[in-house]
Specification:
191 residues, mainly alpha, two-stranded parallel ribbon
Length: 191
């Protein structure tokens, strides 16, 4: 959640807004929790805890989710951008799945880990799908009473459509790893 980009809202927020200045001017959020974590990828539960229940409930919150197979391809393509992924995408993905060190990284964790509490309840008010991001974001902006804003492509990795990188065994391994996301968010391979 902390990673989400809110630049499109920038025109509608005060220039002194602490989060906007930290994210887009200083490029760093000065928070001890980020220093302890070593990254800015907090779960919704961690954000709720740091804000307090009452303040959390006063906010409108949303997150962007992505097809787990597409997300995994993007993660591995980015992590192995030294040419390893391009030379051997299936082997690269198998090695990442088999490497316990990679499994603790934020982008390897399931999206459900970031968005649900210990009881399995979704903590954010709404979800946008990466596959329909502009349409979903327009819906969020409308709900907030803000005009639609064209989103820019950011942090993309170079690769073909995710379905081209899977054999049956790898598809099933990723399905097993991200079963919570697939079931909770209704994803299917090929969507």
């Amino acid at each position: 959640i902390a990673e989400q980009r809110f630049e499109p809202c920038g025109d509608h927020l005060d220039a002194a807004d602490e989060e906007q200045v930290a994210l887009f001017v200083q490029r760093r959020i000065e928070r001890p929790v980020f220093d302890r974590m070593g990254h800015g990828h907090q779960t919704a539960a961690e954000v709720r805890e740091s804000l307090g229940q009452a303040l959390w409930e006063s906010y409108f919150s949303f997150a962007v989710i992505r097809n787990p197979w597409a997300r995994f391809v993007s993660y591995v393509a980015f992590m192995k951008r030294n040419g390893e992924f391009a030379a051997d995408p299936i082997g690269s993905m198998r090695r990442v799945l088999a490497n316990p060190e990679r499994q603790s990284r934020p982008h390897f964790r399931s999206q459900s880990d970031f968005l649900v509490d210990g009881s399995g309840h979704l903590l954010v008010n709404d979800l946008c799908r990466a596959e329909s991001l502009q349409t979903d974001f327009d819906r969020i902006m409308q709900r907030l009473g803000l005009p639609p804003t064209k989103l820019e492509l950011r942090n993309s990795s170079a690769h073909a459509h995710y379905t081209t990188y899977f054999d049956d065994a790898l598809r099933e391994a990723v399905e097993e790893r991200y079963r919570d996301d697939i079931e909770r968010f209704g994803y299917r391979f090929g969507d």
